[in-house]
Amino acid sequence: MARQGYLRIDGVSKRFQVNGAPLRVLDRLDLSVAPGEFLTIVGASGCGKSTLLRLIAGLDTMYDGGVSLDGAPIVEPGLDRGLVFQEPRLFPWLTVAGNIELGLLNTGQTKAARRDAVRHHIALVGLDGFQDAYPYQLSGGMAQRAAIARGLVNRPRVLLLDEPFGALDAMTRARLQEELQRIWAAEGITMLLVTHDVEEAVYLGDRVVVMAPRPGRIAASFDVDVPRLRDRASPVLASLRDRVMCALEATGPTPAAETPPWTAAVATPRLEPVYQPAE
Predict the structure, then answer these.
(1) To pair with 101 at 20 to 30 A between CA atoms, which of 18, 34, 212, 215?
(2) pLDDT in tens, 129-163
(3) Fold annotation for 1-80+161-264
(4) CB-CB contact of 102 with 91 (8 Å)
(5) Can you point out the beta strands (E) in 89-229?
(6) Does residue 124 contact residue 149 with C-beta atoms inside 8 Å?
(7) How confident is the model over 238-275, as pLDDT tens digits?
């Protein structure tokens, strides 16, 4: 049986309407992620990284092109994809165990099976002893561990991570990067992480994809041929960081002549999704 978790994005374009004017967020984007691969995507704000994750998660289906998982089109959210946000988004009235168990809703598992799965994933993310704690009793790093466990508990084929460590301090961020690598190795699932942090992208990824903005598109791709566990001070990683940074800088800011006219006049534009067929 073929290994599961093969993700494919074919010619995906996405538009929004911003104050009545069209804004192309993604433009004919092609990308494939192999089963079990840890892919990181880096790009400036506004390049469409989070939008792409929403399409893969099935939270937005109004776009041109195709997104598929193991050959099946993605047309709605599903248990085969887990999603972790920048903020933990834990329910304050539920314990750690209760929040993680939310990931098992609609799976049809027995109460005993759900309890065993929650116990296993609490141990997996290093939260033993905190299963009965409430979110307000957790540090930021511990809350994010719980969010990762919730994303993994139903054993998805793909885990999508949207800047999961962006709000954490440097030391906590480094520790959770190590934990995420350990979890990825233990679970063997496909992971796709988007980040602004080039060092994080290179340190975690099997492959780093650089996205250019306005419209969002693939500018470059780099294989990270460095065995794990990795040394952050590795000269090979340092050289690759420089190459990725150069590729990122080459995407450049939007030229003044191409800057949408509403950006100077409107501080917080209203976004309205709209479907338009590809030209």
Answers:
(1) 34
(2) 999 999 999 999 999 999 999 999 999 999 999 99
(3) Rossmann fold (3.40.50)
(4) yes
(5) 158-162, 190-195, 207-212, 217-223
(6) yes
(7) 999 999 999 999 987 644 334 443 333 333 344 444 44
